[in-house]
Fold this sequence. Notes:
Elements: E1 2-9, E2 15-22, H1 29-84
Amino acid sequence: MADEIHTTRDPDGTTHTTTIVDREPRRGGGMGMMLVLLVVVAVAAFIAFQFLGNERAETGAITEAAQKVGDAAQDVGDAAQEAVK
């Protein structure tokens, strides 16, 4: 950082002082990038949990349907055995 002080004198004897403060540009990109990364991770986690939840529901539905088919097959088998007697 470099500060400059300029003093000028008017013909009537008055002086004016101008101070120029040279600051480095702010670098707030790190905080912004962290915020963007946090949002991306949150969205990815939400999508992943939705996908896993759907997989569990689908697996449960398939298991239930298979159980019903098995129960129906058992009933048919029982009925066939009763018919043979």
